[in-house]
Amino acid sequence: MTMAAANQAFRTRLRERAPLGGTFVKTPAYQHVEIAGGAGLDFVVLDAEHAVFDPAQLDQCVLAARAASTAAVVRLPDPGASSVLRVLDMGAAGVLVPHVVDAACAREIVARTRYASGVRGYSNSPRSGGYGALPMARHMREADAGASVLCQIEDRAGVDNIDEIAAVPGVDCLFIGRADLAVSYGVAELDHPLVAQAVDKVIQAGAAAGVAVGIFLPDAGALAAYAARGVSLFVIGSDQSWLRTAALGLNGHMTAAFLQTSECKP
């Protein structure tokens, strides 16, 4: 399957609200992407907002996702046209854009991902254009069809304007960020009633508009409950959190084993 076809397949599943599972990759290491893809995850989110990725590292990780048959979504550091263009030229399957607060912001983001009816700067020389191999019309058609737009809803304003955001053509997913929602509402608990009400409102808006809803969860414990409410895309933990959990577990096992060994000694 070509990269364009793989990206289109991911976007089709996203728009159909098929169950999709992935994780954040916060370490600029392509091996982590290969491991996630090899484990069967549907996608990875390369976190260029809260982790240190330079363009070359992002490029390597997008290529690793291609090799591992998983979709690479990039969480952008900002919604600017150059940020969007750079990762789509690399061949990323889509962009996760932080702090989408109204329909105007959502429309600008969609326009930056599109050639037709958009403002994406044209070039078929990067990976997305087959390094010059794809004819102009084909590249434009396939690129537009395969660019997924995930809008992160993590502000009170975004929740207030959620119906209008969900109605913007080209918005493929409303992604709930509970931590920033808590901060925006002036609370410090992810399960605070104000946050829970905001989450409900986003889920309801997605259902009404026929738009996928995604969420970040630290682990899979609440996955089934959110899936039953209509959430279809899940980002579970991160490469760093998984490594930390495994390291803590290993340390616990070693501590217990050493304790038993010492107790056995006369």
SSE layout:
Elements: H1 3-15, E1 20-25, H2 30-38, E2 43-47, H3 55-67, E3 71-75, H4 81-90, E4 94-97, H5 103-112, H6 136-146, E5 148-153, H7 156-160, H8 162-166, E6 173-176, H9 178-184, H10 193-209, E7 212-217, H11 223-228, E8 233-238, H12 239-264
Parallel strand pairs: 1-2, 1-8, 2-3, 3-4, 4-5, 5-6, 6-7, 7-8
Helix pairs in contact: 1-6, 2-3
Order of helices and strands: HEHEHEHEHHEHHEHHEHEH
Nearest-angstrom radius of gyration?
A: 20 Å
Question: Count the helices. How many?
Answer: 12
Strand order of the largest sheet: 1-2-3-4-5-6-7-8
CATH class: Alpha Beta
* Bulk shape: globular
The rounded distance between the terminal residues' Cα atoms is 64 Å
The major sheet is characterized as: 8 strands, parallel, barrel
Domains (count): 1
By helix and strand content, what is the structural category?
Answer: alpha/beta
Low-confidence stretches: none
Percent helix, as a range, is 40-55%
Determine the CATH superfamily: Phosphoenolpyruvate-binding domains
Give the DSSP E fraction (strand runs of 2 or more residues). Answer: 15-25%
Task: Say what the CATH topology is.
Answer: TIM Barrel
Level-2 CATH architecture: Alpha-Beta Barrel
Q: How many DSSP-defined strands?
A: 8
Can you tell me about this structure?
The chain has 266 residues and is of the alpha/beta class. It has one domain (3-239): Alpha-Beta Barrel (TIM Barrel). 50% of the residues lie in helices and 16% in strands. It is built from twelve helices and eight strands. It has helices spanning 3-15, 30-38, 55-67, 81-90, 103-112, 136-146, 156-160, 162-166, 178-184, 193-209, 223-228, 239-264, and strands spanning 20-25, 43-47, 71-75, 94-97, 148-153, 173-176, 212-217, 233-238. It has an eight-stranded parallel beta barrel with strand order 1-2-3-4-5-6-7-8, surrounded by seven helices. Strand 7 (212-217), helix 11 and strand 8 form a beta-alpha-beta unit. Helix 1 runs parallel beside helix 6 and helix 2 packs parallel to helix 3. The chain starts with a helix and ends with a helix. The relative contact order is 0.13. The model has no long low-confidence stretch (mean pLDDT 96).
